[in-house]
Amino acid sequence: MTELQRSGTASRRGLLKVAAAGTLAAGAASAAEGNPANLPPNTPEWAKSLGPGVIEEAYGTRSRHETAVRRYVPWLTQDRQSSVSFTPLAEMHGIITPSGLHFERHHGGVPDVVPADWRLMIHGLVERPLQFTLEDLKRLPSVSRIHFIECPANGGMEWRGAQMSGVQFTHGMLSCSEWTGVPLKALLAQTGLRPNASWLLAEGGDASLMTRSIPLAKALDDVILAYGQNGEAVRPQQGYPVRLVVPGWEGNVWIKWLRRIELGDRPWYHREETRHYTDLMPDGRARKFTFVNEVNSVITAPCPEKPLRGKPGFVEITGLAWSGVGRITRVDVSVDGGDSWRSAQLQEPVLGKALTRFRIPWEWQEGQRAFLQSRAMDETGRVQPTMATLRKARGVESIYHKNAIHTWLVEPDGTVVNVQIDA
Ligand SMILES: Nc1nc2c(c(=O)[nH]1)N[C@H]1C(S)=C(S)[C@@H](COP(=O)(O)O)O[C@H]1N2
Ligand SMILES: [Mo]
User: Fold this and answer.
1) Furthest C-alpha separation in the chain
2) PROSITE patterns, from UniProt (predicted)?
3) Which CATH class is domain 15-28+292-422?
4) 319-373 pLDDT per residue, tens
5) Which end of the chain is more exposed for a tag (fewer CB within 10 A), N or C?
């Protein structure tokens, strides 16, 4: 079993070698792919003997046939300490990202925080500076909320043109989890606030000591100190034992491995809100504190990773929509590059500041060239802009907050390519 476990991260070739070496149950060789003896009405090989039963490992893993679905991208993720991995959006079902496929962005690697030694200090413009242990937090009333997190640099390479060859790379710094924890306002109720408190600084306990300034109004609205993610403890890569959840706001302010919150009367202008995470405009000025991830969407099938393989006929177009200011109210889909639109079905649940799945049927004609687009709207009436509209307002010097309508070109042979048609 341990051998099988290890091969879970190896290539398929490696797995087949394991099978040939006979470490699988008897019959595994004939259970291999492409064996007509396994097809109905025959009894397949895997049903002819007892399987291993309850697994020995204390923690479950996915099918060994699914290990190609992965977030680590070697050609993009060279430096493991200060780097990034991407959620394989084309392989996702529904709206929840499995924790093992949550995208990662670490500026100083993943610290091994010992939960018993974890403390959160809240100080500055408060009546009573306090420290909290993890146990203290868990005694308080908790909430569980489903929210997306998106790095504002998602798609940041595409301001000047289509670059990346798949939805994992154009949009994969986007994940959605059920987060469980304590509302920050409950802790601030304990510390009390001085009358002039209007901003707070959140600091992480990793080697980068990541710090961001957040307006107090947001903190008192819906910010959560999360210790739970999808029903279990927050993963080390997501900020174990406690991370900030800042619904709808750029991923960078969702401070991981949280250790300190300081109240103040103005922003701190730290590195991550001056040198980075500002939007450089065409006139050379930079917009700062542009926290919100505005209304956005992308088709996740068909897409470069999910081509049509020359098979004409029915295909369901599906994708994800999200808005940092509230619920998605409508997603339109075009197959002709925006000349005509049809409204897609929004799959329940449709939650505020969460991913929303949309789907719409399509008949792909033999040899048809198609330009697939999705255009989302949210409850505030905001509509996703075209790339041309966004460029007109923002120029091409930006990295962050690109929420333009995305185009996939379906070639006559069913191949799907990343293109921009309104440049
Ligand atoms: N302490 C700390 N918090 C952090 C970071 C970090 O490097 N250190 N990265 C930030 C960035 S840039 C993003 S986009 C999100 C990524 O969260 P994830 O790794 O859980 O996807 O965490 C943010 N919080
Ligand atoms: Mo980020």
Assistant:
1) 76
2) TAT
3) mainly beta
4) 999 999 999 999 999 999 999 999 999 999 999 999 999 999 999 999 999 999 9
5) N
Q: What is the pLDDT of residues 249-264, one digit of tens each?
A: 999 999 999 999 999 9
The amino acid occupying position 61 is T
Confidence (pLDDT) at 3: 31
Q: What is the pTM of this model?
A: 0.92
pLDDT in tens, 267-305: 999 999 998 999 999 999 999 999 999 999 999 999 999
CA distance 299 to 281: 28
Residue 196: phi and psi, rounded to 5, are -90, 5
Pocket flag, ligand 1, residue 256 (CB < 6 Å): yes
**Residue 21: partners with Cβ closer than 8 Å, 6 or more residues away:** none
> With contact defined as beta carbons under 8 Å apart, do 326 and 352 qualify?
yes
Closest ligand to the CA of 203: 1
Q: Compute the distance from residue 182 Cα to the ligand 2 centre, in Å.
A: 23
For domain 115-287, give its CATH number from 3.90.420.10, 3.40.630.30, 1.10.10.10, 2.60.40.1610. 3.90.420.10
According to CATH, where is 2.60.40.650 located in the chain? 15-28+292-422
